[in-house]
């Protein structure tokens, strides 16, 4: 039963991890519709606002925006709260036309203002800097970022959204000119995101944008110095990778179950040895081979079923406890429970059958003599 319990919990756990990974991937991309196109530079090719404007001129593109990324340190006026680290994004307002982020509260965000220092907080930074406070209460509050004061003009709701290497909940947003002037001394790599006018023209948009950027930077058509990726294919690839991970984990769990099954078989051999006289008495009073075989198989069925029920029950406690938290979400699914129980029953009965068959073949005289 212990082998069955461990095997059931292992299979349900790995399925839950795989399902949670898929859900997390889908959540990270949910703010991007399938029309979204992302452009990444390289160490050899640095993107600039010229690239943003060139992409916007495409007949298939409705909007494009560029943004910078750099790590920043945040402090609130409350001295009891320590420094909070976050990814700082220097953005243009066009970014919010492309991605779907919801605000708990919003005041103003003017990219043309250079002297004033404005910032939009991500959900995580807000909850850490202002615990037990409402978003509206921190509007126009001054916080310190990289030893300079900034005014909060917006707070984002929790979204779990993003695209590699950025998670929107893990970012603080600045006007791009403020970012260039106060946050970094040397500009990091500019990232570009665009929106195709329609889903059916995404492929044409990717092709045209790639060709235009290659021409601008004087690159060969087969060059990999610039990457132009549509969100739809990125989502599909990420989900497929998560599914592959799930299948891999299930395979590992199956090996664990097989090893447990071998242990079950050894225990069953020991059980048969201890009950040799019982088998001899059964056969001497008229029990045939099939009767003895089915008795042992029925015992294995009951014990395996009981072990499966205990394993599923213990798993319910594990998922309520949520040991990994948001780092590794566990997603409960009927699919995982079913696979675990079915595999447990098959393994239990299979590895109990051979010892049961050996027991049913014992000669009653020899069994009583032992």
Structure description:
This protein has 370 residues and is an alpha+beta fold. 51% of the residues lie in helices and 18% in strands. It is built from 11 helices and 12 strands. A hairpin with an 8-residue loop joins β2 and β3 (84-91). α1 runs antiparallel to α7 (231-274), α1 (2-29) packs across α9 (289-321) and α1 packs antiparallel against α10. It is elongated.
What amount of the residues lies in strands? 15-25%
**Cα shape:** elongated
Helical coverage, percent range = 40-55%
Radius of gyration, CA atoms, in whole angstroms: 31 Å
Unreliable stretches, pLDDT < 50, 5 or more residues? none
Q: Tell me the total number of β-strands.
A: 12
Secondary-structure class = alpha+beta
Profile the largest sheet.
10 strands, mixed
Head-to-tail CA distance between termini: 28 Å
* Alpha plus pi helix count: 11
Order of helices and strands: HEHEEHEEHEEEEEHEHEHHHHH
Overall pLDDT: 77
Briefly say what this structure is.
With 370 residues, the chain is an alpha+beta fold.
Write the layout of secondary structure elements.
Elements: H1 2-29, E1 36-40, H2 49-56, E2 61-75, E3 84-91, H3 95-98, E4 103-106, E5 118-121, H4 123-129, E6 142-145, E7 148-156, E8 162-163, E9 166-167, E10 171-175, H5 176-183, E11 191-196, H6 202-216, E12 227-230, H7 231-274, H8 276-284, H9 289-321, H10 334-360, H11 364-369
Parallel strand pairs: 3-10, 5-7
Antiparallel strand pairs: 1-11, 1-12, 2-3, 2-6, 2-11, 4-7, 6-7, 8-9
Helix pairs in contact: 1-7, 1-9, 1-10, 7-10, 9-10
